[in-house]
Design a protein that fits this description.
Order of helices and strands: HH
Distance between the termini: 182 Å
Structural class: mainly alpha
Number of helices: 2
Radius of gyration: 63 Å
Helix content: over 70%
Strand content: under 5%
Number of strands: 0
Largest sheet: none
Shape: rod-shaped
């Protein structure tokens, strides 16, 4: 047998075997293989569609997140600005209240000082008057030992009134 030239009987049986295997594969194997390939193709297409949809959703979520972040920053700035305004109002109100209290305390202190001054003056005047009376009494007693001098002094006082 020559290696390069096939024997016609061997060639016949090889073609027949190939035909039977091809027929069996065409009848039972290829549809299953093609079905599996088609299912795989559909799965890949569905996965690609899902991935695209997920990317769209992710982009939407990212935009929403950025929008929410910007909104949160804006709200934070508004809150800080409001807090600063409120702080200024509170400080101003406290300052005004403290000024009013200080003014009130100063007025009350001035009134109390004036009263104390008037009371001290009244006390001093009272004591001076008491001392003047005592001095006058002592002087008059010494000078007016006599009834006639007393009458003259009384008449003089009545004339002065």
């Amino acid at each position: 047998m020559n290696l390069l030239s096939p024997d016609p009987g061997l060639l016949f049986w090889m073609i027949l075997s190939f035909g039977i295997v091809f027929f069996i594969l065409a009848k039972f194997g290829f549809p299953v293989i093609i079905g599996m390939v088609n299912k795989r193709k559909e799965y890949i297409e569905m996965s690609l569609l899902s991935a695209r949809e997920a990317n769209k959703q992710l982009a939407g979520i990212k935009e929403e997140g950025e929008r929410l972040l910007a909104e949160a920053k804006s709200q934070k700035q508004e809150i800080v600005a409001g807090a600063m305004v409120e702080k200024t109002k509170i400080v101003q109100a406290a300052h005004e209240q403290a000024s009013a209290e200080a003014s009130k305390i100063a007025q009350e202190s001035a009134i109390a000082i004036q009263r104390a001054k008037e009371e001290a003056l009244a006390d001093v005047k009272g004591e001076v008057a008491d001392m003047a009376l005592k001095v006058a009494e002592t002087i008059i007693r010494e000078k007016m030992q006599d009834d006639e001098e007393q009458k003259k002094a009384i008449l003089k006082m009545i004339d002065n009134l």
